[in-house]
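Blinded run. Sample ID left blank on purpose so nobody reads anything into the name before looking at the predicted structure. Input follows.
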Amino acid sequence: MHNGWSIFLWVVYPYVMLASFIIGNFVRFKYFHCSITAKSSEIFEKKKLMIGSITFHVGIILAFFGHCLGMLVPQSWTAFFGITERMYHLYGSLMMGIPAGLLAFIGIAILTYRRMTVMRVFKTSDLNDIIIDWALLITIALGLSCTITGGFIDYNYRLTIGPWVRSLFTLHPQWQLMANVPLIYKVHILCGFAIFGYFPYTRLVHALTLPWQYIFRRYIVYRRRVNATY
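Blinded prediction complete.
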């Protein structure tokens, strides 16, 4: 029974959430493309929005790439370049991870507070907006707690969580690696996958709509009509 729950949490659940992410985004872009929008509420309140949005986006982008490095790059690769586990933990996790996590947490905290307290913003928000704000706030808080507590406990996630994540992508999930992972890490991972699964059905999907066409479009040339009469 214990193995059954472990297989569900660390094999079935991640694949279901990833499938929801991929299929949901495909359907959203294919059939509901016009619904993809950030739906700005700047007209109702601007100061908190600017501070929270910039802080959150900078922090979450840094945290995202930090997670990619920690989860997808094996420890043996960094060791090959002379980066010891102590160096990685000190400079990568603590000196870079904590500032990134703090920025993301402060940003989403401001945005969530703004959504819940500014009545005009709250009344124009739908249930998805409120759910995703709180989900991000809780998940980021858990992730920041993992980074901070990592400096006080003897635990190397690159020997357990990292290989487990990579095993999901090779379709040979090593769920046994998650058996002795600290509880706070497990809850953070489960919340993170929940956000991935819920992602296509919220306004977060606008993060995938980068304006790549502007890079390849032709230049727009403006010519001045000197003798024009008005």
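Unblinding after everyone has recorded impressions. Residues 85-117 form the longest helix (33 residues).
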